[in-house]
Design brief:
The protein is mostly helical. The chain has a domain of about 90 residues: Orthogonal Bundle (Arc Repressor Mutant, subunit A), CATH 1.10.10. About 40% of the residues lie in helices and about 5% in strands. It contains five helices and three strands; from the N terminus they run ααβααββα. It has a three-stranded antiparallel β-sheet. The radius of gyration is 20 Å and the shape is elongated. It starts with about 25 loop residues before the first helix and ends with a helix. The relative contact order is 0.17.
């Protein structure tokens, strides 16, 4: 059995808050307008077959058969979806990406968040620890 790992772990999709199987932001945020018809078809297919983390590993041959596409059409559809950041692809894994905005330089999950109170002493301790960790 193939072990699947997210290509972009920070972009694992979550079920949308509204009642809809397909995230309404696909239309509301105008992603759909950037999709060619074959790209939209491929995206719907990948949404349907992906696991809970948005991952699937259907082969090109299987996708082409199921969607009645030839290789150039599939290749262009895949490039279209990658360009508009709806999917990531590293053969043989597809990842349907979250539509949540990406926060570049976000702190790791173990870091404290700003919405929790922290004592000034804890802030200084974290600063000292960070300074001592430098090479």
């Amino acid at each position: 059995m193939i072990e699947k790992h997210p290509i972009h772990p920070q972009r694992i999709r979550k079920l949308p808050g509204q009642f809809s199987w397909v995230d309404q932001r696909l239309v509301r945020d105008r992603y759909i307008e950037s999709c060619s018809p074959p790209a939209a078809t491929l995206y719907l297919f990948l949404l349907t077959v992906a696991d809970s983390r948005g991952l699937s590993y259907y082969s090109d041959a299987s996708i082409m058969t199921r969607l009645s596409m030839d290789m150039p059409t599939l290749d262009e559809a895949r490039k279209n979806l990658i360009k508009i950041e709806l999917i990531a692809y590293e053969r043989p894994i597809y990842q349907v990406l979250s539509l949540d905005p990406v926060v570049h330089g976000a702190p790791p999950a173990t870091a404290r968040t700003l919405d929790k109170p922290v004592s000034i002493g804890e802030v200084f301790k974290q600063m000292r620890d960070a300074l001592h960790e430098r090479p």
